[in-house]
Amino acid sequence: MDAEELTEAGRRLNSFAIHLLRAMHRVDAQSGLTPARLSALSVLHFGGPRTLGRLARDEEVTSATMSRLVDALCDLGLAERGPHPDHGGMVVVSATEAGSVVMRAAAQRRIGVIAGALGDLPARERGAVVRATEQLGRLEQRVRDRVAGASSSHASR
Question: Is the pTM of this model over 0.70?
Answer without folding.
Answer: yes
